[in-house]
C-alpha cells in the first residue's frame, strides 16, 4: 500500500482526475496552506488533496448567536468539521497539483489546480495551521469491456447534451471534441453531468473504469429521459461549447 501525507482541502464539490479546479483562497487556514505550498521548488509538483465534505461547512461559520455580518469566523484548521474531521469527509478524494498560486495584495490567493490521482483518506491531522491527511493512492483499473462501455457512454452523453440544449436537430459535439481513453471519458462525464455530491462521489470511488462507465450509462439514460419529459429544465453551460478537460 502506497501512502502519502498531504495538505487537505475540503470542498462542497467532487474533484476528478484530469479536471481543472480554480480556487479563491481567503480563509487563514488555507492561506497558510498556500504559503507552505509556495515553498516547494517550482520544478516540483505543489500537491494537496481535495475531499468532498460529507457533514460540515466549506467556510467556517461565525460564533453562535444572532447573524452578524461583522462577526469573525471560528478559528482553527478543523473549524466547521466537528470534533473528528475524518468523519466529516467522504472517504475517497483526489490529489490536486497547483499549477498557479498567485497571492493578491490583501493576502488572499488565486489558485488554479488540476486533479491527478484518486486517494483514500486514512487519517486527518488538525495539529498544525491547516489540515493534513495520510492518504492511500488508488490505482485506476480498467475493468472488463471498458472500451465498449466508453463508446456507449459517449453516445449517451451527446444525447444528454442535446436534450439539455433543446437541440434535437443538430449535434453539439463531434468525435474530435471528446476523448477516447475510457478512464478519461469516465472522469469527464462524471464531472460534466448535473448530479448531486453523493452521486458524483459514488462515481469517483468506483472500483474500476468499467464500473464507473456502466453506472454513468444508467445515469445518462435516466437523466435524458427526465429532461425529455420535463423540457422546461434549464440548459447548462456545458452545452454551449465543446466539452474539454481544460
UniProtKB/TrEMBL annotation:
Pfam families: LON_substr_bdg. InterPro entries: Lon_prtase_N, Lon_prtase_N_sf, PUA-like_sf. Residues 6-224 form the Lon N-terminal domain. Gene3D superfamilies: 1.20.58.1480, LON domain-like. PANTHER family: ATP-DEPENDENT PROTEASE LA (LON) DOMAIN PROTEIN (PTHR46732). This is LON peptidase substrate-binding domain-containing protein. It comes from Streptomyces mirabilis. The lineage of its organism: Bacteria, Bacillati, Actinomycetota, Actinomycetes, Kitasatosporales.
Amino acid at each position: 500500500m502506497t501512502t502519502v501525507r498531504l495538505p487537505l482541502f475540503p470542498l462542497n464539490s467532487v474533484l476528478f482526475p484530469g479536471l481543472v479546479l480554480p480556487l479563491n483562497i481567503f480563509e487563514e487556514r488555507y492561506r497558510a496552506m498556500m504559503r507552505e505550498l509556495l515553498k516547494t521548488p517550482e520544478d516540483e509538483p505543489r500537491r494537496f488533496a481535495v475531499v468532498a465534505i460529507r457533514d460540515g461547512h466549506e467556510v467556517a461559520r461565525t460564533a453562535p448567536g444572532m447573524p452578524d455580518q461583522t462577526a469573525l469566523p471560528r478559528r482553527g484548521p478543523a473549524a466547521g468539521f466537528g470534533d473528528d474531521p475524518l468523519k466529516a469527509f467522504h472517504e475517497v478524494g483526489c490529489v490536486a497539483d497547483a499549477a498557479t498560486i498567485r497571492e493578491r495584495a490583501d493576502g488572499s490567493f488565486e489558485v488554479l489546480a488540476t486533479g491527478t490521482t484518486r486517494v483514500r483518506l486514512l487519517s486527518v491531522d488538525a495539529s498544525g495551521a491547516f489540515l493534513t491527511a495520510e492518504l492511500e493512492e488508488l490505482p485506476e483499473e480498467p475493468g472488463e469491456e471498458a472500451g465498449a462501455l466508453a463508446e456507449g457512454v459517449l453516445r449517451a452523453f451527446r444525447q444528454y447534451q442535446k436534450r439539455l440544449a433543446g437541440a434535437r436537430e443538430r449535434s453539439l459535439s463531434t468525435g474530435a471534441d471528446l476523448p477516447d481513453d475510457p478512464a478519461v471519458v469516465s472522469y469527464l462525464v462524471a464531472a460534466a453531468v448535473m448530479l448531486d455530491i453523493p452521486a458524483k462521489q459514488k462515481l469517483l470511488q468506483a472500483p474500476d473504469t468499467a464500473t464507473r462507465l456502466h453506472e454513468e450509462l444508467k445515469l445518462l439514460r435516466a437523466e435524458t429521459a427526465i429532461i425529455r419529459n420535463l423540457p422546461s429544465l434549464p440548459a447548462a453551460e456545458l452545452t454551449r461549447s465543446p466539452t474539454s478537460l481544460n
